[in-house]
Specification:
single chain; mainly alpha; elongated; HAT; rRNA processing; repeat
Length: 394
Amino acid sequence: MSNATDKARFYLEKSVPELREYERKKIFSKEEISAIVKKRSDFEHKLNARGAIPADFVRYAQYEMNLDTLRRKRVKRLGIKMPGHTGQRRIFFILDRAARKFHGDIRLWIQYIEYARQQKAYKKLSNILTDALRLHPTNVDLWIYAAQYNVEEHADMTQSRSYMQRGLRFCKSSKKLWLTYAKLEMIYIAKLVARQRILGLDKPIEAPKQQEPLDDMDADMIRLPTITGEDINPSAENENGVDEVALEALNSTPALSGAIPLAIFDTAMKNFNNDDRFGHEFYDMVNEFDDLPCLRKVLGHVVESMQKAKPDSHHTHVCYIKFPTAGIQVTSPEFPRAFGASYGRLTAHRTNPSVAKEVISWLQPIEKTEGLDLSLQKAISATIRNAERVVQGA
C-alpha cells in the first residue's frame, strides 16, 4: 500500500507549481485549489492501488476535462495570458496510463483517440493510432476509424488506403473491412466529381486501359491501378484556390472510372470464393452513389461477375433485376422504361420466395416516393402485392 501512496504523492507533487500559478493569478481561490488537491489525491490513490478499473481512469480524465474547461473560461474572462496546454497534457497523461494499464480495452483507446482528435493534437493522435493498431491488429473497427479519420480530417486518401490495405493483411476475412474500403473509394470519387461539376469540368470519362488481373492472393497489398487521382494531386491549390488543370485531367485516369472499387471487388470476391451474398452487399453499397458517372460501369461489372460465378443464386437474380434502374432518378421520365426492363427480368424469377422478399424491400420505398407517376405507382404496388403472395405461399 505504501508503494501506491508513494506513486500518488509523486504524481500530485508534479502539479504543485501549476496550482500555485493558478492561485497567484487568482484563477482559482485557495479553497478551490484545496478541493482540487483533495479530488486529485482521491483519484490517484484509487488508480495506484490494487483493484483499479478502467472506469476509475475515465472518471479522473472526465474530472480533469471539466476542470480544464472551467480554467479556460476564467482565463479568458480575466484576460490572463497562460499556456493552454497544461490541462491538456495532464489529461493525455491520465488517458495514456489508462490505455497502457488496460491495453485490451478498446473503449479506452477510442476515448483517448477521440480526445486527441477534439484537441486537434494530430501528431499525438497519429502516435496513439499506431500504438492501438500495434496492440490490436485484428480489430476491424480500429482500422476503419484510422482510415476514415485521415479522409475526414486531412482529406488524405493515400494514407487512408494505406491503413485499409494494412488492415486487410490482418483482417482478410472481414467483409465489413472490404466493403468500407470500397465505400471510401466511392466517397472519394463522389467528392472529385462534385468539385468538377462546381467548376464546370464534368466531361465524359474516357475508358482507361485494361488493368492486369489481380491473381496474386498472397500479395501483401491489393494491386490498384497505377494512375489514380493522387498521382496528379487533385487537392493541390493554385492561385485561385483550386487546381483546375488537375481536376480536368482526372477524366483521362482510372480515378473517376471506378477502376479502384472494381479492383477491390475483384480481389474480395476471389478472397471469399465468389460469395454471392458479399456481391449483393457490394452492389447495394455502390448503388447508394446514384449520381456518379461510373455507377453503371461498376454495377454492371458486379452483376456480370456474379452471373459467371453464381448464376443460380437469388442474390445474383436480385442484382440483375435491379440493374436497369441503377442511377436513374425515380421521378425522372426515364425511370418507367427502366422499371419495365426490371419487371421483364423479374418475370423469370417471380415464384422464388427469396427473390420476392428482396423485391419487396427494394420497391416499398420507391412506392412511397413523393411525386411518383400515378400509373407507375400502381404498377409498383401490383408488383409488391404479387411478391407478398409468393412469400406468404412459401
